[in-house]
Amino acid sequence: MPTRQSRRAHGTLGERFAVLDPSTGEAFDEAPDQQPDVLDAVVGRACEAWRSWRADPVARATALRAAADAVEGAGADLAPLLTREQGKPLAESYAEIARAAARLRYFAGLDTRPQPITDGRPVHSEIRWRSLGPVAAIVPWNFPLQLASAKFAPALAAGNTMVLKPSPFTPLATRLLGAVLSSALPEDVLTIVTGREPLGARLATHPGIRHVTFTGSIPTGQAVAAGAAASLARVTLELGGNDAAILLEDVEVERIADRLFWSAFRNCGQVCMAVKRVYAPARLYSQVVEALAQRAKTAVVGAGLDPGSQLGPVNNAPQLARVERYTAQALADGARAVAGGHRLDRPGYFFAPTILADVPSDSPVVTQEQFGPVLPVLPYRSLDEAVEAANDTGFGLGGSVWGTDLDRAEAVAGRLECGTAWINHHAELSLAQPFAGIKQSGVGVAGGLWGLYGNLRPFVVHRPQEA
């Protein structure tokens, strides 16, 4: 039975829009198409809820832990719905839900105690931390629940309230998550709004919002930042990546091939920090290409609800068209599809896992973020050449180095221009570590204490040491 919180969070039903199953391309449900004029009331209620939510950190931590328990308890309802609208294998949906619950518990356990300032003056100075107010979160379709929790867990733990808008491609599991969380959170602390544009644009520019956190494309992120500037709201932007993996001369290809392949193809390649380019030494190039191609050819592609599926469909038709376009351009430029290279002849948005060899370095599949099950592999003759190529991009999210000599691999990793560098693995994050990109991959920091403080502002109090 929906609670008062969930009914209010979901808004009046009114107009609705279809939600498609990417494994069939057919509509299977609908979601409310809320209009921008609901935002004044929604943000106003979030501001009212903020006054009491911010006042009691102990009660907040207790509520967030209860929320984590509720999310875990609802996994059997959330996971199939997430798979149905997003496309990923069911096991990955369960993992996403577990990560959301773990993130709530992690941030519930963080502490922001006052910090004294010692500067030699006869004054006692202390930094205290205050919440910002209502926060807007705009979440993409690749990890709807995990990325939602990455935004609401630190924001709520800091004492803010939140209005969260999921992608119109994946609104249903997020709406259900909002209903689940309403059993643990006070009314209007977290509100879910669903709808098509211009709902997101209006949310980002609403004068009652004090922080906008967005994950998505660079052009949309730029528009979000420009809109938030009108009210001088803080922005946190995670805008994707074009992560490179550099294989060193001493790499043991068969030993790392599985990890490397899944670092690129997990969630059908729809991961901002997935490996999207591989640079292999010329001497090992054919061996690397063949090892990755063999795994691409044997990966089981199917609907996420099918138990044997390892890779699901691309989430939506526009993204599938992008993957097809980049692949076709690479082939026209002279690349070879050693595996895949085409859409699968079946209903839904399925694209064959694709390994591209002999790709020109200026082909869009190399220079842009393909965000799908396509991986170009490029040879290099000198390590300096590989590092220069890896850094020759407007993105700067992550990167990795693969080899046997860990000291040498770490030295090479230190030369990468990105926010996170991994050695012999990729795209693995701890809840305690900061996550941020450089260049056009984003603004601000998520994760760990840095993510919590990104939702707070300092408040300094001075008092004399003596009357």
Question: How are the secondary structure elements laid out?
Answer:
Elements: H1 4-10, E1 16-21, E2 26-32, H2 39-53, H3 57-73, H4 75-86, H5 90-108, E3 115-117, E4 123-131, E5 134-138, H6 144-157, E6 161-165, H7 172-181, E7 190-192, H8 199-205, E8 211-215, H9 218-229, E9 234-238, E10 243-247, H10 253-265, E11 275-281, H11 285-298, H12 317-332, E12 336-339, E13 354-357, H13 364-367, E14 374-380, H14 383-391, E15 398-402, H15 406-413, E16 420-423, E17 442-443, H16 448-453, E18 456-464
Parallel strand pairs: 5-6, 5-8, 6-7, 8-9, 10-11, 10-15, 11-14, 13-14, 15-16
Antiparallel strand pairs: 1-2, 3-4, 4-18, 9-17, 12-13
Helix pairs in contact: 1-7, 3-5, 4-5, 4-7, 5-6, 8-9, 10-11
In short, what is this structure?
The protein has helices at 4-10, 39-53, 57-73, 75-86, 90-108, 144-157, 172-181, 199-205, 218-229, 253-265, 285-298, 317-332, 364-367, 383-391, 406-413, 448-453; strands at 16-21, 26-32, 115-117, 123-131, 134-138, 161-165, 190-192, 211-215, 234-238, 243-247, 275-281, 336-339, 354-357, 374-380, 398-402, 420-423, 442-443, 456-464.
* CATH architecture classification name of the largest domain: 3-Layer(aba) Sandwich
Strand content: 15-25%
Low-confidence stretches: 1-13
Q: For the CA atoms, what is the radius of gyration?
A: 23 Å
What's the β-strand tally? 18
CATH homologous superfamily label of the largest domain: Aldehyde Dehydrogenase, Chain A, domain 1
Helix content: 25-40%
Count of discrete alpha- or pi-helical segments spanning 4 or more residues? 16
| CATH class term of the largest domain | Alpha Beta
* Biggest sheet, spatial arrangement of strands: 12-13-14-11-10-15-16
Tally of discrete structural domains? 2
Biggest β-sheet, characterized? 7 strands, mixed
What is the straight-line distance between the termini?
60 Å
CATH topology of the largest domain: Aldehyde Dehydrogenase, Chain A, domain 1
Q: Mean pLDDT across all residues, rounded?
A: 95
Given helix and strand content, the structural type is alpha/beta
The global form is globular
